[in-house]
Each structure stands twice: as C-alpha cells, then as structure tokens.
Amino acid sequence: MKNALLFIFSLLFCELIFAQVTYEKFESQKLNATRELKIRLPDDYNPDSDLKHPVIIVFDAEYLFEPVAGQVSYQTYFDEMPKSIIVGVVQGKERFYDSYFDEVTGLPFESGDRFYNFIDQELIPYIDSKYNTSKFKVAVGHDLMGNFINSFLFHDTPIFQAYINLSPDFKGTMSENVKTRLEWLDSDVFYYLATADGDIKSIRDRIRTTNDNLKTLDNQNLTYYFDELIGDSHYTLVSGALSKALDRIFELYKPLDDKELREKALPYEGTLDDYIVDRYKRIDDLFGIFKPISEEELQRLITLADQREDIESVYKIGKLANKLNPSSSFGTYYMALHAEKLGKTKRAVKLYQSALDLNEMSHINKEFIMSHVEDLKFVEDDTETEDDEEN
User: Fold this and answer.
1) 212 and 287 in one domain?
2) 229 with 331, same domain?
3) Which domain of life is it from (predicted)?
4) Would you tell me how many other CB atoms lie within 10 Å of the CB of residue 89?
C-alpha cells in the first residue's frame, strides 16, 4: 500500500512539473536552424522582483530535463538550494552533430563548434535578457554531452560556474585537458563527476582515471566531487547522481547544520557574527543571489557561543540581529543578556525594557523578558558609565 501511494505521489509530482514547463522555438543564426527549448521558472517567479535566480542548462533535454527539474523542485522546497531557472535544450537526432568533436583534443569541431557558439553567444544572452538571472550558471551533460560541456571550461572566464558530468564519454585528450585547465583556474568552479559500478566499462575506466588525476589537484578555486554509484547502470545513475551533485554544489546555500557548526563555526577564531556575515557574503559572491540570515541560525550561533564561553559573540550577534530586523526583540534581548552577565545591571534592565516594546519571538516573550527584569536589582556600586551604553 505504501509503495502504491509513493508511486501515485511521484506521478502527480511529475505531472505538476510537466504542467509548469514552457516550450519555446528558438531561431538560431549560429545553427541556421530552429531549436526547441524547455523552460521551467520557479513557482513564485516574479519578473518585477529584484530576486535573481541561478540558471541550469540541461543538454539532451528530451530525457534529462524532467529528472533535473524534479530534483530542483524537491531541493528548493526544503530550501536546500536556491530557486533556479531550468533551461533544457532538446537535441534529438541533432545530438550527433551537436556533440561533434576533434578526435585528438575531444573539443567541439565543425557542427559541434557551431553548437558551442549557439549556447555561448545566443542562448545564454537570451535567457539573461529575458529573465531575472544571477551570474551562477550550471551545465548538466550525460554521455557525449558530458564530454561536450567540459569545452566551456576553456573560455578565458568559464561560461559555467558548475559542471555536472553524468558518466561523460571523454573523447581524445579531453580528460587530460580538463585536468590542466582545472589546475590553473583563477575563478570559482564546482566540478562534479559520476560513474557507476554498472556503467559502460570503457567509459567507467576513463572516468576513474580522470578522477585519479583530478583528486590530486590543489587549487583553492576548484571544488571537486566524485561519486561511483553502486547498483546503477550508465542510464540509471542519472537520478542518484543529480541528487548528490545539486546537494553538494549548493551546500553553502543551506541553513547552518550541526556538521558546519561543529567543524567550522566552533573553532572559528573571530566572533560568530563575523562568521555568519562572511558565510552569507560568500553565498552572494558565488551564486550572485541575496539570502537573508535567519533568526533561527542566529539562535544556533548564540547556543554555540555559550558552548564556547564566548560572551562577546552573544553581544555582537545581538547587534547584528538588531541591524537585520530592528522590530524584533531578539537582538535587544541578547544585548541585555550580555550586559547582565557582565554585571552591568542598569544597562541590562534598560535593554530588557526596550525589548518589551518590540515584537515577541516564540521562545522569548514578554513574560520571559519580565522575569529577567524582576530578578535584577539595582546596585549602588554599579560602575557603568555612559560610554558603556554605546548604541
């Protein structure tokens, strides 16, 4: 019964995705032909909004678009990745010509070169001009198109910032060329490579060799991931690999989790407000999108500050919270708590009383704040000065 319900849910989910896809005919001068595009915008996409969205270009869209769209919908629902614009290029019988390569280098050649120029000089500029796109672009390719997407790395500034290679059939010296290019990258690139134990042997062997070469690279601008899925074939690996690829590429975008708090925030040498601000600045720099810091994350950092016995971070996080959301009592409460712990009773009471005039939080309401005020007593030897009561 459970499996039957899951199957029905999957069908309804796929039907919903299919209903939200727009089909367009694109007249390409580079190809001297018309190409069909599949485009899926975020559910709440607003063309008048300032919100920007990453763009995911899916090759072989006739069979690869729906798996990508499904994974993106699932992960954005749980805020595991930013809401993205998905653009699928339907290739069909043109695939052989689109992926045509030089037998020595494996790079696009003749009709393959024309297809490269169509993507670079026509399709991406068109999408950027029509939709609210961020600078972050992802290429998804399988088999021959997996080999093809690597050619975009060799642009002076890589056209895509993330490459999802699903069992790529590396041609010529493409594998060696990729290693050399990734070794000397001077801009941030995410590179994902996947095979499976049931993959086509010649393809899997070449991918394994490529992985042996890439995992030795020491380049701070490169974020490299490799997976060899168990129990999958050249075709069935697509779903599992896509899930892992998107999960890892957008790992920084996710809300703070226990692993990051334990491994990165806990040993951080500065105050924790700097940690979270730097983290979100990196999200903006990498993905070209603004994501607000949530009070839930600030609360987790407060708990961590207590664990670190880092009272200064409590105060700094309170100040940051006030800046982010002046109408919430969150920041003022923790600034008051900081003053209370330092023995600055007058300042603590003053701040607690200010917090009473602000919006409550679920775990810090007016009664809870008043309990602090009632427990504090003014002392004659309180030595705090006006200088202590900054901002």
Assistant:
1) no
2) no
3) Bacteria
4) 25
**CA-based end-to-end distance of the chain:** 61
d(CA 302, CA 307): 9
- The answer to whether the CB of 136 falls within 8 A of the CB of 111 is no
Tens-digit pLDDT profile for residues 130-146 = 999 999 999 999 999 99
Amino acid at site 101 = F
Domain count, the chain: 2
**Do 269 and 311 belong to one domain?**
yes
In the chain, where do the E strands start and end?
22-28, 33-40, 53-58, 85-89, 133-143, 162-168, 189-198, 222-233
Packing angle of the helix pair 330-341, 366-375 (nearest 10 deg): 20
One domain for residues 282 and 243: no
What residues are paired with 35 via a beta bridge? 26
CA–CA dist 261, 199 (Å, integer): 37
Same domain, 106 and 162: yes
Last residue of a domain, one of 253, 279, 306: 253
Q: Is the pTM of this model over 0.85?
A: yes
Number of residues assigned to the chain = 391
Q: Are 342 and 315 in contact (CB under 8 A)?
A: no
- Residue from 391, 326, 319, 316 nearest 358 by CA: 326
Q: Give the structural domain span for 29.
A: 2-253
Strand pairing class (33-40; 85-89): antiparallel
Gyration radius (Cα) of the chain, Å: 26
CB 343 within 8 A of CB 383: no
Report strand pairing: 53-58 vs 85-89.
parallel
Same-domain check for residues 127 and 215: yes
Residue 136 is given by DSSP the state: E
Residue that is written with structure tokens 């920007």 in the block: 52
Where does a domain end: 219, 253, 287?
A: 253
pLDDT in tens, 141-184: 999 999 999 999 999 889 999 999 999 999 999 999 999 999 99
